[in-house]
Amino acid sequence: GHINPAVTFGLFLARKVSLIRAVAYMVAQCLGAICGVGFVKAFMKHEYNSLGGGANTVAPGYSTGTALGAEIIGTFVLVYTVFSATDPKRSARDSHVPVLAPLPIGFAVFMVHLATIPITGTGINPARSFGAAVIYNNDKAWDDH
Fold first, then answer.
1. Cα gap 77→83, rounded to integer Å
2. Which of 17, 57, 95, 110 could lock 11 by a disulfide, CB 3.0 to 4.6 Å apart?
3. 121: left (phi over 0), alpha (psi -120 to 50) or beta
4. Phi/psi at 62 (5° precision)
5. Which of 28, 3, 25 is nearest to 12 (CA)?
6. Is the four-CA dihedral 120, 122, 128, 132 of positive or negative sign?
7. Residue ranges per domain, the chain?
8. pLDDT digit string, tens, across residues 60-97
9. Dist CA 72 CA 89 (whole Å)
10. What pLDDT score does 113 carry?
């Protein structure tokens, strides 16, 4: 399923999804993230506030450019892994080995999180980052966007 606008955009660029469908998916993903963060804020107020609303911020000691670069590279790694793990030619070429796309994708997400959590809190899903920033609505949440 489509849960990450970066992956949806990549699929659009690869001509696997039409422009209208890609835009509809990305709008739905962002609205879903806003609703999800709203529910968390409504039902878990203390945890929500103690964690800064889940909004991504640049950690002290890192520049905005470094943080942006880390997020771009991390998102690229995720999208590249999704494309390579779900390539239909791969299953034909490696028919003796079952293709388990979730395994490399999950590993890529894990590795990107290890690398970028100390810098930005990891925002490789733009919808999740956008939803948290909209609901948190603190000036600091928008400083680096």
1. 10
2. 17
3. left
4. -115, 145
5. 25
6. negative
7. 1-56+125-138, 58-122
8. 999 999 999 999 999 999 999 998 888 877 665 565 55
9. 27
10. 96
